Amino acid sequence: MKGSLDGFVRAAAATPTIRVADCAGNAEQILALIEKASRRGVSLLCLPELCITGYTCGELFLQETLLASAVLALSQIVRESREFPVAVIAGLPLVERGKLYNVAAVFCRGRVLGFVPKSCMPTYGEFYELRHFSPAFSDNRTVTFDGNPVPMGPRLLFACDGESAFRIGVEICEDLWVPSPPSVSHALAGATVIANASASDELIGKAAYRRMLAASQSGRLVCAYLYAGAGQGESTTDMVFSGHDLICENGALLSESRPFGDGWAESEIDLRILEYDRRRMNTWGAGQPQAPYETVPFSLDAGVRELRRRVDPYPFVPDDESERNSRCEAILDMQVSGLAKRLSHTGAKCAVIGVSGGLDSCLALLVTARAMTRLGRSPSDICAITMPCFGTTERTRGNAHSLCKSLGVECRDIDISETVLAHLRDIGVPITSRDVVYENAQARVRTLVLMDMANQLGGLVVGTGDLSELALGWSTYNGDHMSMYGVNAGVPKTLVRHIVKYAADAAPKLSPVLEDILSTPVSPELLPPSGEDIAQKTESIIGPYELHDFFLYHVVRWGRSPSSVYGLAVIAFGGRYESGVILKWLRVFCERFFAQQFKRSCLPDGPKIGSVSMSPRGDLRMPSDAVCSAWSAELDKLES
Q1: Is the pLDDT of residue 286 over 80?
Q2: Arithmetic mean of pLDDT over the chain
């Protein structure tokens, strides 16, 4: 069983060690990098601005000898790299119609595909490029190189015929730093990858700004952004160059070389998520005039057989502890803000919440307590209710009471066993039954109690169900499925755990009970326990939440196919789950996600927290009658 890695392309930004004005020697250094790229399975290699001559040639740029040497060096590089399956971008000075241009040459498999001249020529501070170079002309034209016609101009798009989503646009250094970079037009014309051949000198604080600039541009344009900076070998008469290389994707930094380091940054680019986000964002490119572009095709098998970039098994949870804590606090703020507004707007005299001693109701109670504090109200304005029944254990019931006591919240016990038994007798269900009616009757009676208590007290029922349960439909329709405000609706289960852990670490008084809740198996507790042990463990029934949250993120946020999700999951969870186990639970996820949409079509209000939401009024306008057959067929192929 092998999943798909379609749409991934490996790219590198690199800095050769050069000698100023030694074009032949620089050609050898560049060829060595191209060979390295080929050896590492790189399909696109971006090299720095004017790397064939060196950026710091100064008046030598006006010398015929240097200009002729640069052209000969490019010819050599193109000729001797023809056996390497790599598209390459490298900078040199080039004369056209008596004018000198700072260009990026794009070549692949022994053919120059085009020359892109620099549009924005800095002539301030330490830069004086207009002294030597002319800015790009407005229209594309055709020039002759090595006896062959080659397009040259600012509006060229280089399209790989082996991967339709692999389309490259090129800009040069300062082009990125101006108010309206050429890359904007490139992206609007269809470029999914922007390559910047640069020679930005190093200053204190500039690396951070450069990093931010490249990452933010990749986010604005929903593209990948490669940035190759000049480095070792450039003249240090007045400046130093660090060889800072960057690869960014859709706002995120994927890889970078350390300034003054080895001059090599490499990563796979995920073209599928770029195309998905452009489809999803109807404002992307709206109202922007698009000048005509010339598309230059090139042939390359750009696919990858294995990923070297990390696939995060917990996409909702930051790895860094500081960032994770910051996110947990921000989520709590969002939940509290939403609930406080709803309590205030409705004039609710209290918040009514069912506490089970489980993870979700624990988080909901923490949020509710914070909301009351924010509103300047007392914890006594929270009516917490435990509703023990057939499956309730002393551990969970005890934890519910301990948590309420620690928060200063009164906890009421309402045993619903007799009510449920009477109801089952009324509808003719045997008391010995352990079917879905037996289970759901308990969940619906609990909701009935909460709703009626809210009516009695003039309160508002706070829902506890989380995002992962909503995706799987793991709730009882008109039972725990329903509330008056669902504070956890935007929080996936893997993140619920970390928020509760964050709360435990931040409040020593709460820590013992929260730690025990965290170590309690997730369960709806609807079946009688075996002694003191919980009989019904959710993850044994529907699968591990860490897998389902991974599936949820990639299916809903990025629209990935089952084959793609499976391939990434095998990488992310390699060594922890066998491939057959991953496939089994992926099928469960897909089937439940489609079949349970009817529950999500009538969800209570609740705050959106991250980029994935199940709200039928917001992100997920999905028909309840959609079928899963195409997804199931793809899973069948994986199994076979």
Answers
A1: no
A2: 94
As annotated, the residues of the chain forming the CATH 3.40.50.620 domain(s) are 321-639
Q: Where in the chain is the domain with CATH 3.60.110.10?
A: 10-289
Neighbours of 468 (CB within 10 A): 26
Phi, psi (rounded to 5 degrees) for 44: -135, 125
CB atoms within 10 A of CB 639: 10
Banded pLDDT at 287 (limits 50, 70, 90): low
Catalytic residue flag (residue 173): yes
Which residue of the set 51, 108, 118, 223 is catalytic?
A: 118
CATH superfamily of 10-289: Carbon-nitrogen hydrolase (3.60.110.10)
- Distance, CA of 456 to chain centre: 45
How far CA 593 is from CA of 309, 381, 573, in Å, comes to 29, 37, 21
Q: Is 118 a catalytic residue?
A: yes
Catalytic member of 23, 49, 57, 223: 49
Over residues 152-190, the pLDDT tens digits come to 999 999 999 989 999 999 999 999 999 999 999 999 999
CATH of domain 321-639: 3.40.50.620
Has residue 631 got a pLDDT over 90?
Answer: yes
Report which residue type is found at 321.
E
Give the angle 105-107-108 at the CA atoms, nearest 5°: 165
Which listed residue (46, 173, 223, 328) is catalytic?
A: 173
